[in-house]
Design a protein that fits this description.
19% of the residues are buried. The chain is of the alpha+beta class. It has one domain: Roll (Nuclear Transport Factor 2, Chain: A). Strands 1, 2, 3, 4, 5, 6 and 7 form a seven-stranded mixed sheet that branches. The longest helix has 25 residues. β6 and β7 form a beta hairpin.
């Protein structure tokens, strides 16, 4: 297999891993999501919300995941609109849909950057509408 074939194979494998991550998120299956992560995963959500931070490790990621899930009646369901593989990285755009515990709709727009090394997600960055995060999920925090 030539170099182009190796890159294509890597891209396909990494796309499949990200698809599995999205499926786990959509099912609300935290264990399945964590199984795809490296133990020392680096997560970053830029912004100034209570969950906007840079953390490392599965336990730290779970704290952020639970802080968001604690505000929701049902986990966010992601509808992927675009996925672009580039070697170790996959860029994903998605629309999210959920309801808060008080019945308000929570529909955010996302851009995720996923880095995959040796079949494990080692980095995950989430860009979203942080004002919406504050207005809908954490409005009582301000």
């Amino acid at each position: 297999m030539g170099e182009q074939g190796l890159v294509q194979s890597l891209n396909e494998k990494n796309l499949k891993i990200v698809e599995q991550a999205v499926e786990a998120i959509n099912r609300g299956d935290g264990d399945a999501l964590l199984a795809l992560f490296a133990d020392d995963i680096k997560f970053w959500m830029p912004g100034s919300t209570p969950v906007s931070k840079r953390v490392q490790g599965k336990d730290e990621f779970v704290k952020i995941f639970n802080a968001v899930a604690g505000q929701l009646e049902e986990m966010v369901v992601l509808k992927v609109t675009n996925m672009i593989p580039a070697g170790d990285w996959v860029v994903m755009e998605a629309l999210g849909d959920s309801l808060t515990k008080n019945g308000d709709p929570y529909c955010n727009t996302y851009c995720h950057l996923w880095k995959i090394i040796d079949g494990k997600i080692t980095e995950f960055t989430e860009y979203n509408d942080t004002q919406l995060v504050m207005d809908v999920l954490f409005k009582d925090s301000v």
